[in-house]
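Posting this for the archive.
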Amino acid sequence: MNTINVSSPIVKNQAQALLDFIDASPSPWHAVEAVSQQLLAQGYQQLSETQVWQLTLLGKYFIVRGGASIIAFSLGSQPLAETGFRLIGAHTDSPGLRLKPQAAFGSSGLVRIGVEIYGGPILATFADRDLSIAGRVMVKNGTDIQSHLIKFDQALMRLPNLAIHMNREVNDKGLKFHKQDELPLIFGEAEAGIEADQQFIQQIADALKVNIADILTWELNVYDTQKGSFWGANQEFIANSQLDNLASCHAALMALLANNNSVTTNIIALFDHEEVGSESATGASGSFLNDVINRITAHDNLAAADKLRALAHSFFISADMAHAYHPNFSGSYDAHHHVLVNKGVVIKSNCNHRYASNADTAARFMQICNQANVPYQQYVHRTDLGCGSTIGPIIAAQLGVATVDVGCPMWAMHSIRERAGVLDHHYMICALTQVFNG
């Protein structure tokens, strides 16, 4: 088995590349832009869904839908009906806070920012952090509408905790926020004679160098300005926001870019909206992946039966983070399924099909790990606790493709500051690279 250690240059470099990727991607729109730039730098061509596609043998392409979902693929030399697709899927979104359309309001001489809760974040972890905003802003340009990415590097907002003198039971009963009344963020002191919303929007207009009157609306994340870091006695761990699931996105991208196999057609599909159910035009429940597959098979002039043959030959890896064993909370885990940080890729199973793995697909992935010389672990949730889900069952049902759910073990999932292992990211990249090169 792989004897590489946390001090190996390749391991450190891959972990640092992940931290840099996350720091550059405080919203799903930024994540897709970061992926796009790396694909372009490696010779991938961007396609538009509104245009006719001219694909060539061994060509490399990508498509963006809605700004926050992206599919990239490299065409293989062998007939699709005989080899099928090798697919890896992940998601670009993470739980957190999103600004409301009319976010700013005045209150006791302060400007506060109203937020909605996106997905299932651990709200208490947003308190007392240096927060800022990032996302996309829709701006009028004559008769056109343009989408602008925006990211404020400096801390703009905070969610200050209530002093313990006024919340004496916080250490016994936990920190809780009323979702409507106690989550608005403090943005700044109100300026005399200026409406709160104008004060806030002016900041956005100045950053984009546009007129305030041309700003139509936005989708903006609240994010933590603290950058990712290594930690631990031997710097064997990493901490950052959005490890769930940008770590899987990064591993999938690295595997595709390292692809040396010109035989099979390889695809990565990074979807938005997994954290809220995937039911959207850009989510895994939408038509995006099937639309791309249809256009690839149409280019190959595959008959309907041959497309079905191709899908029957295909294998889909749903990559999403896994729950590492936390020794302080041993009662939250199945006693015989403790998956450990830095001990290998996790194969996730659930008999109610919240994960798509079955005995056949799990065994196939075990073989992939053996071929890649990386360790693997198996995880199942406690029987008396509800299990989360992934895009795995969704894609498996849509395409009828053999599917396995895997991930890297991590602590503090859905915290604003998540933790994972340096070695595990390396293991995941190696395993996914083997999927494409095998």
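The chain has a mean pLDDT of 96. The longest strand covers residues 96-107.
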